[in-house]
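TOPIC: backbone geometry
CONTENTS: sequence, structure tokens:
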Amino acid sequence: MSALDGVARRVGAVSVARVLSCWFLGCWFLGCVLTLGLAPVAHAARQSEAAQAESPRATAIPSEARLARTMAELPRAEAGAWVGWHAAPVPPLYLAALEAYRAEDLMRTWNLVCDTLERAPDHPAALSLAGGVAFRLRRYGDTVVAFERFLVHAPEEVARTRHLGHAYHSLGRHDEARVHYERVLAAPDLESKARQEARLGHALACYRGGDSDAARRDLDGLLELNPGDSEVLTWRATVAFDDEELALAITLAERAASRAPFDPRPVYLLARARGELLAILDEDFAGLPQDDAGRVRDVELTAEREALRAAVVRDETRFAQLAAIDVRSRELEAELTLTPGNHAARRELARLNSAIGDSHGALKQAAYLARTAAEDGESQLVVLELLVAHGRPESATAHATLLEAAFDEDPSVLERLALFYAERGDLQSRLRVGARAAQLRAREAQLRARETGPRARKPEQTAR
């Protein structure tokens, strides 16, 4: 039997200081629930082409100041005003809002959906979209108002309103969140993925409300359905840590970390749980027999203690790295939520993901830049850099070919491409691109000489 196993069994009888910051763990919950499953949105998208033709796609983006509008300011409809709303014509402004949402332009979406609700008060599909967008913008009060109004006019759609529970949770209204999740979970038409998300929300509402037993049941049930869900594993490890089941917390956090290697939370839990085990083990050492040099004679226990100490240092170091990058990444993601066309922010986010080895995250941002920043040479070079760094040689070569044609007049891009070809051992391409870059640099030098030449000779001519 491992000495640590014995410590873990005894930890329940030991008073362990609880300094785990629940807010630190809680700030990640919303990251797992931002994908909207809105049936009204999907329904509206299937409307006739004639209705879509009326969509004011060329409408100027409203002033950013209009983002300050709140749901409470928008007009209300009378009860029963939207009976049979599925068959009603879709407002053209709503279709424009839906298009903006699909383009990830949340600011424009918010303004357009508010415009829709001003002209068609409490239109259910618009309310549903407004609630989802408000949630992504972290406007939780607006999320609550939008979905509560939605349920007044479309109570049969309760299965689509789990984000109302998320908003209650985010506002600290855990009892209301719990009740709403239970209402959602009771809906007969709830899809499997939505059910799992709502059940996780219910677990966290119970946990925050002090009902750890209910939270444990929900989390264990979710793990039976999907044993590899890193989010559920992390929260189950958190509950185990609070229950002083350190060995279980470590096991669960290790599983979570193996499935989500760039998430700081399970690493944080590992550092805390192992740190507490180490503190207990250090206390035990004080009473063990020692040799003349002051070393504990139990070699096996000493080795386990040192291994645990090394693991704590490793966890703390990894956590510090991941947490620092995560904080900056979330700042950039928040900025991109409002300004998706900020290529500099997206480049930085891509490189941060790359720095911690997150290939999926880095390449996701690279794909977005390749699609939306086609005329930005710096962004396209970052795409090339990321394709190379994350093992996509064929895609990198194809992208380099595109850049050579698209930036044939940009010596800075061509010089970087020449380096890329040199690193790939493609001498012919390196010489071709390098020669073109040199030609453009020579042309620039000639233009500068023409511009500065007369001014440079003027003092000399005056002296004569």
